[in-house]
Automatic annotation (TrEMBL):
GO terms for molecular function: heptaprenylglyceryl phosphate synthase activity; magnesium ion binding; phosphoglycerol geranylgeranyltransferase activity. It comes from Methanohalarchaeum thermophilum. Its main location: cytoplasm. This is Geranylgeranylglyceryl phosphate synthase. Its cofactor is Mg(2+).
Amino acid sequence: MNIEELLDKEKTQHLSLIDPDEQSPSKVKEIASEAEKGGTDAFMVGGSLVKGESILDKTVEAIKKTTELPVILFPQDHSGLTPKADAVFFMSLLNSRESMYTTGFQMRGAPLIKKFDLEVLPMAYLIVEPGGTVGYIGDAKEIPREKPEIAVAYSLAGQYMGMDYIYLEAGSGANKPVPPKMVKAVKENIDANLIVGGGIRNPKHAKAISKAGADFIVTGTAIETKDNIKDAVSSFKERIC
Ligand code: 1GP
């Protein structure tokens, strides 16, 4: 399977993020089924504090039993890897002060990725203020919201290092998403695929970020906390262009 071929680049794509620690595998089946009905394009699986391989495996298995949409791992470190997924965002947190998050965990995970034969999607992961849990755990020097030029510089650096994906992350549950102005500035300057996530709570946010040029938007909290997941996802999909 080639994820890049599966994901249509004409429109902004919607990625549903599932944190294995937030719900049981049976609830995951329900979420995956409803998100697919709502029109999500793929699933990402990961979180800052994944408690163990077994819950990760069970979560991915539950999604795979429910849908044929791609499942892409979003690992916080090498413990977030499983052979049961289709692909992995091989991410380096470029604005971390801690070398484990830029190259250390990558070194630990690389042999496992080879062994598991996962499709590798190289990604520069950039934390923008407020940054939330991932900013704290990843010891990030968060990009100031009013400094799009710093986001552009980091994104270009990621692209020149060979990364095909750039992820602007405001942190899960952030009270506001990455500013559309920053998304636009980055998109205008890079050829790599642009992913934006963190704090995208409503269709208005999704529309503004899509219009600014994001190739992918990620929503986690907005799906986990909604009673009607299908409607929540379709309300995002309807507003993105
Ligand atoms: C986390 O950006 C994602 O990496 C999702 O954030 O939970 O705020 O949607 P939310």
